[in-house]
C-alpha cells in the first residue's frame, strides 16, 4: 500500500504526471493472500483535484486492461466517453481465474475460493480504491467467459455492488439463464446490463447465452438499460474487441455531446422547453453516473439553434441564466441575452448586452471584436438623440417546415467530428 501511495503522490505532484498506470499488491484477509492489481488513472486526474471518477473493475485484468484502456482513450479524445479509474485484477497465475470463479454445482452460487473472491472484491478491493482515490459512486464490472459468468453473481444481491455489467460470452453457472432475468426484472436500482456472443462462439455457451437473452427481452423494468449483441463472423476471442466499445457507448450514452440526430429527432421537434432539455441532460448525467460536468459550449450552440429555428426567443433568457452558472466569467450569458433582444427587435437593449459581453472573457468563437461589430451594426438603426421615433419590432412568423440555416453546424455533433 505504501508503494501505491508514493506513486500517486508523485503522479499528482511533478513531471511524471504523464504516467497513468500503477501496479500494486493488495493484502487480502478474505483470500489469505496477496493479489496484484493494475490501476489506470484518468489523464486529468492530477490537474483536476476536485473531480471524481467512476470505477471500471476488470476481471481478467491481465488481458482486458489494454483493450479497455485503448477504447476509453479514443473516447476521451473526442469527449464521447468520460474519464474513469480502471482497476484490473491479475488472474493469470496458477489458474486463478478458475478457482476465483468457483461456483457450487447445483445452485450456481459462489463456492469455496469463489465465495472468498466474491467477498474480496466487494468488501476489500472496492473500499480500498474508494479510500485511496477520488471515486464517483458509479461502478462497472467486466469479464470474459468464466469471469463474465461469475460477475453476474453480484446481481443476486438486493442492492448490487455494481451499477453496470459487461458480460462478454459468459460461461453461465447452473441456472443462471433463468435466475438473472428474474433478478433484472425485480431490481429496484438503475442497472446497465450488456452481454454478447459471436457466431463462432463455443456452441454450448452460445446456446445458453441466447436463451438468457430471450428471457431478458421479455422484461418490462424501466430501471433496466439492456443491450445484447451477437457478432456475425467473429470468434470467441475477436468478439471482445467488438464488445468493449459497444458496451462503453451504451453505458455512457448520456455523456455524449448533442449530435445531429439528437438535435433533429429530440430537440428541434419540441414545441418548447429547449433549455430544460439541456439542463435535464446534464442533471441525468450527474444523478445516474455521479459525474458533475460543465455544459459543453457546443451544446449551448445546439440549443441556440433550436430556439432560433422555432422562434422561441424568450428562452434565450433561461439559456443566459444557465450560461452564467456554467461560465460566470465568460461573455456567453450576455451574448445570449443580446440575441434575445435582437431577435425581438429591441435593438437598444441588444446593444447594451453586446457591450456588456465585450467586457467579459472570450469563449469559443465568441470574441470581443464580434461583440463590438454586432453592437455597432445595431446602433445604426437606433433613433437619433433629440428625435422622436421608435424601432419597428420584428414580426414573428410561423416556423418553416424545413430546417433553416440555423441548424447547428456540422462540427457541433460528436459523430461528425473529424481529426
TrEMBL record:
GO molecular function: hydrolase activity
Keyword tRNA-binding (UniProt): no
InterPro entries: AB_hydrolase_fold (IPR029058), Esterase-like (IPR000801), Mycobacterial_A85_antigen (IPR050583), TPR-like_helical_dom_sf (IPR011990)
Region (Disordered) location: 381-419
Ranges of Low complexity composition bias in the record: 396-405
Short name of any one Pfam family annotated for the protein: Esterase
Domain of life: Bacteria
Keywords tagged on the record: Hydrolase
Name of the protein in question: Alpha/beta hydrolase
Amino acid at each position: 500500500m505504501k508503494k501505491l501511495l508514493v506513486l500517486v503522490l508523485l503522479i499528482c505532484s511533478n513531471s511524471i504526471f504523464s504516467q497513468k498506470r500503477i501496479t500494486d499488491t493488495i493484502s487480502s484477509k478474505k483470500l489469505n493472500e496477496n493479489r496484484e492489481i493494475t490501476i489506470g488513472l484518468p489523464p486529468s486526474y492530477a490537474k483536476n483535484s476536485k473531480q471524481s471518477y467512476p470505477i471500471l473493475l476488470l476481471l481478467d485484468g491481465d488481458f482486458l486492461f489494454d483493450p479497455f484502456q485503448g477504447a476509453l482513450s479514443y473516447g476521451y479524445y473526442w469527449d464521447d466517453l468520460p474519464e474513469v479509474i480502471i482497476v484490473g485484477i491479475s488472474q493469470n497465475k496458477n489458474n486463478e481465474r478458475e478457482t476465483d470463479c468457483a461456483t457450487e454445482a447445483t445452485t450456481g452460487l459462489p463456492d469455496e475460493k469463489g465465495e472468498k473472491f466474491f467477498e474480496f472484491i466487494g468488501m476489500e478491493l472496492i473500499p480500498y480504491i474508494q479510500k485511496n482515490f477520488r471515486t464517483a459512486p458509479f461502478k462497472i464490472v467486466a469479464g470474459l467467459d468464466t469471469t463474465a459468468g461469475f460477475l453476474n453473481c453480484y446481481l443476486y444481491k438486493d442492492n448490487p455492488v455494481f451499477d453496470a455489467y459487461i458480460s462478454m460470452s459468459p460461461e453461465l453457472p447452473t441456472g443462471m439463464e433463468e435466475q438473472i432475468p428474474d433478478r433484472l426484472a425485480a431490481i429496484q436500482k438503475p442497472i446497465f446490463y450488456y452481454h454478447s456472443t459471436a457466431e463462432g462462439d463455443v456452441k454450448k455457451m452460445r446456446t445458453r447465452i441466447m436463451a438468457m437473452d430471450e428471457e431478458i427481452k421479455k422484461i418490462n423494468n424501466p430501471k433496466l438499460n439492456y443491450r445484447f449483441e451477437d457478432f456475425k463472423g467473429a470468434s470467441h476471442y475477436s468478439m471482445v474487441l467488438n464488445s468493449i466499445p459497444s458496451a462503453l457507448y451504451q453505458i455512457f450514452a448520456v455523456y455524449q455531446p448533442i449530435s445531429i440526430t439528437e438535435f433533429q429527432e429530440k430537440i428541434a421537434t419540441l414545441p418548447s422547453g429547449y433549455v430544460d432539455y439541456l439542463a435535464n441532460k446534464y442533471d441525468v448525467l450527474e444523478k445516474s453516473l455521479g459525474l458533475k460536468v460543465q455544459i459543453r459550449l457546443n451544446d449551448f450552440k445546439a440549443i441556440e439553434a433550436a430556439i432560433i429555428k422555432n422562434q422561441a426567443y424568450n428562452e434565450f433568457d433561461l439559456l443566459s441564466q444557465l450560461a452564467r452558472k456554467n461560465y460566470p466569467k465568460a461573455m456567453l450569458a450576455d451574448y445570449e441575452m443580446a440575441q434575445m433582444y435582437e431577435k425581438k427587435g429591441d435593438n437598444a437593449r441588444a446593444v447594451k448586452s453586446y457591450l456588456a459581453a465585450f467586457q467579459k472573457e472570450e469563449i469559443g468563437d465568441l470574441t470581443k471584436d464580434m461583440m463590438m461589430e454586432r453592437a455597432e451594426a445595431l446602433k445604426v438603426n437606433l433613433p437619433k438623440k433629440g428625435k422622436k421615433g421608435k424601432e419597428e419590432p420584428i414580426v414573428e412568423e410561423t416556423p418553416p417546415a424545413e430546417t433553416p440555416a440555423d441548424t447547428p453546424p456540422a462540427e457541433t455533433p460528436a459523430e461528425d467530428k473529424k481529426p
